[in-house]
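pasting for ref
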Amino acid sequence: MPSLTHPDSPLAQARRRVSAAGSRVATAAATTLTPTHGPAPAAVVAPRPGRSAAVRPAERDTLRRLLTEKYEYVHHEWFDQPDDDAYRALFVDPDPLPVPDVSWYHPLMDPSIADPTKLARTTGNSGGSVLLTAAQERVLFTQFNYCRKRVCELRDRLLDPDVEAPSARERAAIEREMLDWYARADALRTQVADTNLALVLAMAKRTRIHPGDFADLIGEGNMALLRAADKFDVGRGFKFSTYACRAILKAFSRQGIKLSKHRGMFPVDFDPKLERSNHQAEKNAAHEDDCADEVRRIVVDNRADLSDVERTVVAARFNVGPGSVPAPRFTSAADGPGGYELPESLRNRAADAKPLTLEQVGKLIGVTKERVRQIQNKALDKIRVTLEEEFLG
């Protein structure tokens, strides 16, 4: 019986078969990603022969989103060619496109800047941005959508119920290829956004906003720029700036409406340094309470020389009487000054009792409600004069 470590042992033979099968799968995946007539794309990393093409744990979330969420591309007539011809026309034959430098754009998003609008007016973009020709722009967007097309085709290959499910190794190779094309598409999408960042700044300068909202507005414009890149159809013959400017302005309009509603609900931002004291409000409330207590005592002590009928009307209409003030306390019906006695229905009324109407008071003293109103106004005039002379004077 041969040893397990011998080159001809069953374990060694099995290992050689597995290694050979892995090499064939990896070579097939590398051939699919990298045509024989051209170099491999920069974002595409072909798996090494003999190694598994399994997805790394850090890429699992990206793969899950690609398989479950919506992901589309804009069709172009070049995509109708065979994959090798389309790849050569897009990635081999064209000259490399210039890559912009967006370092000038980053300070505009710094929240520590007091007035970013002033910085935006003085910041130039001539040193970093590039201006693509119509032909270069057409190549860039066609490359971008071709990568997205390849992602969609590979995704459909995995999810199509009418196609036989691939084996575990084949599925790993397809997932690896799909992630590589997605990375290439994401890099081209970033290049599109970096090339056209000046559009966001130009549209922001045309919008009248508060300086504190400038960073939020720029962020909303950047998101609109990315959405426009996803939806733009270069085959229609228009420049991307024509389509993106409109999308950015619409995004600014929606952001302005949102900020207006927010300011309607919260007129000012909270700032402890600007918070006002409520001392004056408390002082006014205390003054009103003192005046109200003094009015009650004027009525109870009859310092305004009110007649018995006037005191009855005031006590019934405003619930001001012996039972409504803490001092002086009346212990009997005729304990007030001058031996005044309230009617039976008004004795010992609680301080929070509901006042009577003019008609109810009229029935109580036997007059009309209009006459009650006249008596009430005359009594109030007497009380006002006494209050101004004694308490406020």
